[in-house]
Amino acid sequence: MEEFEALLNESLEMDTPDEGSVVKGKVIAIEAGQAIIDVGYKMEGRVDLKEFANPGEAPDLSVGDEVEVFLRSAENARGEAVISREMARREEAWDRLEKAYADDARVEGAIFGRVKGGFTVDLGGAVAFLPGSQVDVRPVRDAGPLMGLKQPFQILKMDRRRGNIVVSRRAILEESRAEQRAEVIGNLTEGQAVDGVVKNITEYGAFVDLGGVDGLLHVTDMAWRRVNHPSEILSIGETVKVQVIKINKDTHRISLGMKQLQEDPWDLVAAKYPLESVHMGRVTNITDYGAFVELEPGVEGLVHVSEMSWTKKNVHPGKIVSTSQEVEVMVLEIDGAKRRVSLGLKQTMRNPWEVFAETHPEGTEVEGEVKNITEFGLFVGLDGDIDGMVHLSDLSWDERGEDAIQNYRKGDMVQAVVTEVDVEKERISLSVKALGGDKFAEAVGGVKRGSVITVQVTAIEDGGIEVEYEGMKSFIRRSDLSRDRAEQRPERFSVGDKVDVRVTNVDSKTRRLGLSIKAREIAEEKEAVQQYGSSDSGASLGDILGAALKGDDD
C-alpha cells in the first residue's frame, strides 16, 4: 500500500502538458487509416494518416516514429486525447515563416489549389495565398505544370492573428532573372554577333531572347530594305543571328540589329546608279508629296510629285502610280550622307511641249475640245495631253473678245491656228480668227497712208457715210465729206455711189481704214498749184483746176 501511495502521489505531482500546446508523441500502431500516438502521461490519441502527407503525396509514417502533435484536449468521451498533426505543423510552420519574413528570406512551398484571383500554396503546414499576378513575370495561361511542384516563394505579407499569408513566385523569378540578365549582359559587347530566339513580335519590332535577357530588334534594323511589319521576315520561335548595337548598363536594355550583319547596299549606289541613268523600280509607298521607288532591296528613291508628270500638275501621286507598280525612273540626284536618291518619272518620257513644237510649227491648224473657259480666253485640249490657249483677242476679227467668248461652251470642238509654242514656259498660243487668214491685211495689203482708193457707199447716216473697200467697212465722218462746208452733207450721197477717198490712217488693231474726201480734195489742190502756178500769180483756183483738168484730158 505504501508503494501504491507513492506511485499515486508521483503521478499526481507530474506536470501534464497544457491543452493547446505542441507535444511529442510516438506512433504505437496504425489501423483503419489512423495512427495511434502515445503522447505520454498515460494519454493516447488518434490522427488521420492524411494529416501526415504533403499535398499530392502519400503519407510516410511507420510504427515507432516520433512525431509532434497539437494537444487540443486531454480527454474526450472515449477517454482518449484529442490531438492533431496538421495543427502542430501549422504552429511549427508559422514560427518558421515569421522568422523567414523577418529575415526577408525565401520559403519553400507547393501550389495545391486554385481559388478566385489566384492559388493556394502549402508552406509546410501553413496555407498561403498566391495572387494570379504574382505567379510569373508574364501572364500564365496554364498553371497545371506548376501544381504540386516544390519551389521557392517570397512572403509579401502575413498576419498570424487572422491567419493570412500572401506569397509571390514572381519576385523570386525577377530576382533570379535580374541576376541572370546581369551575368548575360556582362558577357555581351557592342558590335558582337550572337544567336537569339524570337520571343515576341510587335508593330515596331521584335524581342529576341539572348539566353536569359531580351533585346529589342527594331523594325528599321531588320533589313536595309523597307519592312512594313516585322512578321514579313520573322516568326515567333525562330532562331536568328543578330548584332548587339547598344547596351544600356543602367536599364539593362539591349538594342539589336540584323541588317548590320549584311553588306550595306548604299556603299555601291553611286557606282551602280549614275546621274541621269534610267532604271526599273517598284513603287513601295505613296505619300502626298510623292512616291518611293525601290531600285533594289535596301535602296529606295523618292519621285517628288513635281517630277511625276509633264502635264498632271496638281494631282495626288496615287492618281499617277500605284503601290507595287513597276516603273521606269531616272536618277536626278544622290546624297550618300543622307542616304537619299531623287528620282524622276517624267524625265523618262519626252517633253510633250517639245514634241508638239516639232510636229506643229507656227501656222499649223489644230482641232481640240474646249477644256476650260476663263475670263481671258479658252483652253483647248491638244495632242500629248496638253492644252493650248486662245486669248480673247484671238477669237474673232469682227467681235469684241468678251462677246465672242459667249459663243463657246465647255466640251465644244474648235479649230484654231498655232501662233506660238514656248517650251520653257510650257505655253501654246492659239488663234481662232486666224483660221481663214487676215482678211483685213489681205484687203489693204497695198494700201498705205496717203493712197487714194475708190470705195462704195453702203449706208447714209446723220454723222457721215459708211463705205466699203474690198469687203472691209469704214466710216467717213461728216466733216471729212468735203473741203467745202456747204457740201459736207451726207444726203448728197446715195447707197451704191462710188467715191474716191484719201487714206488717212491704217489701224491693224481696230482693223479700220481712216478715209477722207476732204483730204483728197486738199491734196489735189496742192498738187495742181505746184504744177500749174501759185495762188500768188493772180490766177484763180478755177483757172488752175481747169488747166489741170485739161492737161488730164490731153
TrEMBL record:
Keywords: Repeat, Ribonucleoprotein, Ribosomal protein, RNA-binding. Pfam families: S1. GO terms for biological process: translation. SMART domains: S1. GO terms for molecular function: mRNA binding; structural constituent of ribosome. Gene3D superfamilies: Nucleic acid-binding proteins (2.40.50.140). Residues 20-86, 104-170, 191-259, 276-346, 363-433, 450-518 form the S1 motif domain. Signal peptide: none annotated. The keyword Magnesium does not apply. GO terms for cellular component: cytosolic small ribosomal subunit. Coiled coil: none annotated. The keyword Nucleotide-binding does not apply. Belongs to the bacterial ribosomal protein bS1 family. Binds mRNA; thus facilitating recognition of the initiation point. It is needed to translate mRNA with a short Shine-Dalgarno (SD) purine-rich sequence. This is 30S ribosomal protein S1. It comes from Marivita geojedonensis.
